[in-house]
Amino acid sequence: MSGSASTTPTKFAELGDRNIAYRKFGNGTPLVLNVRFRGTLDSWDPLFLDELAKNFEVVIFDYTGLGASTGTPTYDRASLVKDAKDLIDYLGFEKVIIGGWSLGGVVAQKFTTTHPGKISHTILIGTAPPGKPEVSGERLFMETAMHPHNGLEDQIILFFEPNSERSREAARLSSDRIASRASDRSPEIAETVFLKLLSEAQDRTTIYPDPDGSEMAKLSSGANPVLVISGDHDIACPIGNWLPLTSKWKSLYLMTIPQAGHGPQHQEPVFCAETIASFVRNTH
Question: What fold does the segment set 11-282 form as a domain?
Answer without folding.
Answer: Rossmann fold (3.40.50)
